[in-house]
Amino acid sequence: MKKRVILDISRLISRARHHTPSGVDRVEMAYARGLHDRLGDRLDFAAVHPLAGYGRLSSETALRYLDLLERRWDSEGGGVEQRSLRETVPLLMTLLPKPGRATVGSVYVQASPHHLTRPALVQRILAREQARFLCLVHDLIPIEYPEYARPDGASLHQRRIETIAAYADGVIVNSAATGDSMRPWIARTGRDVAIHVALLGTQVMPTTATPIAVPDVPYFLCVGTIEPRKNHLLLLNLWRTFAETLPQNEIPRLIIVGRRGWENEQVIDMLERCPSLRGHVEERNGCSDQHLDALLRGARALVLPSFAEGYGMPVAEALAVGTPVICSDLPALREAGGSAPDYLDPLDGPAWRRAIFDHFNAGPMHAAQLERIPAYRPPTWAQHVDIVIAAIDALQR
Length: 397
Description:
44% of the residues lie in helices and 15% in strands. It is of the alpha/beta class.
C-alpha cells in the first residue's frame, strides 16, 4: 500500500501579504498543484505557520488558500505596499495548522528553503511525522558567490544546505549545474543520498479575451529581482550610452520587471537619478501574471546578463511564447534555453550592444534565433512532477 506524502507550503503562507509571487513562490505552488493532481487523497498539506508553529492543514483549507493566491497573482500588480497586518492576520488565522496523524514510511516534501536555517526544527518535524525527507535545492549561489548576496547570505544559506545534507533522504535539483554544486556537500556527510535532476516547468498563460496594452515601440524586457548577480548595471550603462549618442528614434526601450533587492545602491541611483535614462528605461516593481505574459510576448527580446543562476525560468518562459533571448553563457541558462538563445559573456559590453541592436533592427542574429525557436521544447511541470513522484516512490520501497 502506498504511504502518504506530506507537502510543506510554509513559503506560500509566509507570503500572504504580497501581491505578486517570486520564482520560489511559483515553484511551491506548482508542487502543490502538481502533487495534488497526481496523488489526490494521498497528499497532506503542512506548514510552519508564522503565528502558530508546525502542523497540518486540511486539503480544503490549503486548496482554498492556493486558489486565493493564484487569483491575486493573475490580476494584481506590484509597486504597491504589502497588505497590512490588520488585513492579513484574519487570513492567517484561517490557516492555523493542527496536529496530524503520523504514518511510518510517509515522505515529507519541501520545495522552498523556508525554515531550513533551523535544523533542530526540521529534525523535530521529521521525527514527529516519522517521515523520510525529499527536498528541492534551487541553487547554492550565496555560498559560491557571497559577493552577490546579503551580508549574512552566505552563512544562512550554508546552514540551509548543511540541513539538507544532514537530513534529506533524497534531493531534487532544478538543473544539473545545481546538482554539481550540491554533491560535495552531501559527500562530506558520508551519507548515500540520491540526487534527481528535474528542470523547472514552464508556465505559459492562456491568451486573454481582452488584450493587455504593451508599449507600441520596440522594447527589451529584463525579468528578475534587482540584485547584484543579475547585472542590471550592464544594461543601464548601455542604455545611458544609447541615450547620449543616438537619435531619439533609434533608442530602444528597456523594461525592468522585478522588485528591488539588496546591495544595489548604484543601480537604484541610476534608476532614480540618471537623466539620460528617463523615457528610455522603465522600472516595474511587479506585474500580474497576465501583464507579464503580455510583456514577454511583445518584447523584441528578453535580456538576462546574470553573473550566476541556478536555473533560468524567464529564459524558458520567453522561448515558450516565441520571444528571442539574449542571456549570459552560463551552464544553468544553457540547460533552460538549449540551442535557441544568443549566449554572451556577461562582462562583454560591446557584444551585448551589438546583439541588442541586431535584435532591435531585426538583423541576422534576430532572424536566426527566430528560426531556431520553433524547435525549442520547454520543460513542463508534468515532467518535473514525474521525477518527483519517482523519487517519492524510491523512498517508500
